[in-house]
Amino acid sequence: MKNWHKLVVAGLFAAAAGAAAAETVEATLENGLKVVVRRDARAPVAVSQLWYRVGSVDEVNGRTGLSHLLEHMMFKGTKTVPAGEFSRRIAAAGGQDNAFTSRDYTVYFQQLAANRLPLSLTLESDRMANLTIADDVFKKELEVVKEERRWRTDDQPTGILAETLYANAFVANPVRYPVIGWMDDIQNMKPDDLRAWYREWYAPNNATLVVVGDVDPQAVIALARKEFGPLKPKPLAERRPQLEPEQKGVRRVSVKAPSELSYLTLAWQVPRLTKLAETDPYALSMLTELLDGHDAARLPRRLVREKKVALSASSSYDPLGRGSTLFTLTAVPANGVRLDRLEAALKGEIARIAQGGVSEAELARVRRQVEASRVFEKDSMFGQAMQIGSLESLGFSWRDEDEMNRRLLAVDAAAVKRAAQSLVDDKLTVVTLVAQPLKGRKIAPPADTKELR
C-alpha cells in the first residue's frame, strides 16, 4: 500500500484520547475466528473488515500472485450468491465494499449503515466457505489481472523500480515476490492452483473480523458467532521463516524504461519489529520521520529546496510485517544532476545524522507531528479498523498500540544517531531507473517519490 510506513508510524505507533475512551471488545470463536469490535457512535455507520492472514509472503516461486488473484475471484460468486451480487447487495443497502492484497494479508471490507451490518457478515461468511471458481470465469479474470499488472507495473516507471528493488535486495525471503505476481506465473496459473489456495488459507482460524462503528460490541460478537460459528476450522500449512542470508556488500542494479524522469533508490536491510521491547525499529521509524515526515523535514528541505539536486526526495520504512524489510531513500534528480551526485547527496544526509546527531528541538517537532497525525487518523472509523486488523494480523494485539506509541515517543537523539550509523554499505542495495524516450507513449509518473511506497 502506498504511504504504508506513514500509517504505521502515525497510525500504529501513536495514541489519541478519543480512541482510549472507545469501548473495544474481543472474542475468539470456537472455530478460531478472532472478532474485535470497537464502538464509535459519532455516526450511525459501521465498518466491517475481514482480514485473512495470507499474502504474497506465503507464496513460492512459480506460484506467485495467487493471493491477489483469489481476491479478485472472491467477488465472482458462491453457490447461492451469483457473480457481482455481493457488491450489488451492499450498494443496494447504501454501502460500499472493496478489497486489497498485501505481502502479509488479504482484506475484504464494507462500510454501511450500522443496522445493515448483518448483511455484510452474512455475505462474508458465505464466501469464506462456499466460493465457486468456474474455469471460464477464472480465465476471464486472469486476463484482467494481466492487464492490471501491465498498467501498474510493466508500463509504470515507479512500478518497475519498486519491483526491481525488492527482487534484488532479497535473495531468499519471499518479500522479493511482487504482490500481483510475476507475469509468467500469472500466465501459467490454473484454476486448480487457485482452488487449492482457497482451501488452504481461507478458514475461520486464519482470519480476524474487525468491526468499528455505532454498534453494540456484544451484539456484534453474537452475530459473528451466528454467521461464522458453523464454519469448520482447517489445519493450516506450516509457515517457515525463510530467513534472508546476511548481505555482505553493496548491490547495484540499473534498469531502463520509458519515462519522463529518472529515479534513484537506496535501500538498506534493517530489522523489523517482532517484539514490543525491541529498540531499533522505533529508532528507525523516528529517523524516517526526521528525514521525510513533513514538508520541512531534512530531505525535501535540503535536497529539493536548498541544494536543488532533486525534484523530490523521500524516506520510507515499514517496521511491521511478516517478512524482511528495508529502509529506503528515493529521489528524482533535478535537471542536469547526475545520479551519482544525487546518491552522494542522499548518503550525505544519513552521514550528517550518523556523525552529528539531531537536536532535541528537532525531535520534539517530529513527536508533535506524529501525535497530531494520530489524532487525525482516529477521526476515521476505517482507519481505526485498519490499525486493529493490521496489528492482529502481524502477530501483535490491538492492545499494544499505546505501548508502541510510548516507545516511539521515547526515542532519544542518541538512538536516532545509532539508527543512522546502522545504515552501512554492506547492507545497501542501489537501484537506478534510467529514463528512456517515451516514443509517443503517455506515461505520467509522479515526481513525488512517496508514490513508490
UniProtKB/TrEMBL annotation:
Top-rank lineage group of the source organism: Bacteria
Similarity comment: family membership: Belongs to the peptidase M16 family.
Record flagged with keyword Signal: yes
Keywords: Hydrolase, Metal-binding, Metalloprotease, Protease, Signal, Zinc
InterPro entries: Metalloenz_LuxS/M16, Pept_M16_N, Pept_M16_Zn_BS, Peptidase_M16, Peptidase_M16_C
Pfam families with a match to the protein in the record: Peptidase_M16, Peptidase_M16_C
Cross-referenced PANTHER family: NARDILYSIN, PROTEIN YHJJ
Signal sequence coordinates: 1-21
Stretches assigned to the Peptidase M16 N-terminal domain: 34-180
Cofactor: Zn(2+)
Domain Peptidase M16 C-terminal: start-end pairs: 189-369
Protein name listed in UniProt: Insulinase family protein
Gene3D superfamilies linked: Metalloenzyme, LuxS/M16 peptidase-like
